[in-house]
Amino acid sequence: MPKIQIPTPLRQYAGKQPAVEVKAATVGEALADLVAKHPDLRRQLYTEDGKLRAFVNVYLNDEDVRYLQKEATSLKEGDNISIVPSIAGGATSSDDLPGFTGIELRSNRDMRSSLAFCR
Amino acid sequence: MATTLELKPEADTLTNEEILRYSRHLIMPEVGMEGQLKLKSARVLCIGAGGLGSPLALYLGAAGVGTLGIVDFDVVDYTNLQRQIIHSTADVGRKKLDSAAEKLKAINPLLNIRKFDTRLSSSNALELFREFDIIADGTDNFPTRYLVNDACVLTGKPNVYGSIFRFEGQASVFATKEGPCYRCLYPEPPPPGLVPSCAEGGVLGILPGLVGVMQATEVIKLILGKGESLIGRLLLIDALDMKFRELKLRKNPNCPVCGTHPTVTELIDYNEFCGIRGEEKPVETAVPEIQVEELKRRLDAGENLFVLDVREPHEYQICNINGYLIPLGELPKRVHELDSSREIVAHCRSGVRSAKAVDFLRQAGFKKVHNLAGGILAWADRVDPKMPKY
Predict the structure, then answer these.
(1) Which residue of A has its CA nearest to B85?
(2) Residue B274 catalytic?
(3) In terms of Cα–Cα distance, which of B372, B16, B360, B120 is closest to A111?
(4) For residue A49, is it within any domain?
(5) pTM of the predicted model, to two decimals?
(6) pLDDT at B173 over 70
């Protein structure tokens, strides 16, 4: 089964696992299976209209799926999918703990968050 | 394919002192006299003298890079010392620039150090970058990342990139003529502030060492024109599993900065680009607050106050005031554990997270909630000086 590597900031939405095995024939199906297994990830990876977020890079093995057939890229046994978020850390010395400054809590169902750790 | 940098050959000889100092370079065919002269002629600008900047500057200085520029406006504090190895305990309170320059001079008095005591901005970056051959990015935030990238593309300087988070790192070389830039990889920054929880913060102290040394290696290779550069490759480092992976990066022909029809032809407002509007603290000031002295007095008087701690469990272990722990991220689904008829005082480390919690609880119908102004840090400062601060 193909495996999806989960980057550190997203692991808390994926049962703290570093990788998740999925049943899928394409990259799109793999991601769909991932969010089906871990619904909290959906908001991290997709916009409200169901598109992959622009700052979420998805790699099949070492290749960016944007340069393959995107979500239609087919998978074979043993393939490795990676979600690669942008990270900005380097010197971290600000007032509050890094990456915190603005969580927004709206309601039980709309708790916004993302894989970003800007600031 | 090795990338050759066009260096102005200012240095044409090494002194006997330099020959002795760099002898372990000189006897290597990959460096030799020619390479060492290239290093001596090279001008490298380090953005930041923090976690990544520390090993970067130390190794580049030791290796004989002729001119090392450092941009930093920060001062050393105790929390830096766990990873920013260019600074020592005695430097706490000093400018990082001064502290770093002193260490570099001690290692290599032949080094020409240029200190820029300023925040890198759209108004100074281009001018600054033009005076250097290579830019090494050791910053800690998205606006500066995009600023460094764009300024590198616009001035034609390679951007030796490193970034870290907890125990994961990334390294690459961006903005060379033949290779992709940071925007080819990440056209847009993630929206600001939509961050899961404070538990996500922090960094393993050795990680910037690992990644900063990789950046230093890439800088040296660019100067020497030797080896296989990280151009077009993103190296992913997982220090916890000690696994290194690499991903292919491609130059995006539609890249807004380095593509065939660029739309970004001058530096922009990067705070705005990253969706950050000034130094805002919107929620914090909008919620009712209680001062630590008042909380202490009322608790001592035996009043029926409910103290809610919205930090993470591992923070609670560092210090606490016996509050009821619900991490901010869990608050929406655990709100039923709270009694809305009681008066609640929410606190976190510094008061930012608990302000969000108070705001959230008020929207959820809680009437008597206060934010502990300044958080447990203020409590440590003004009520219980024995309490550790972190």
Answers:
(1) A91
(2) no
(3) B360
(4) yes
(5) 0.81
(6) yes
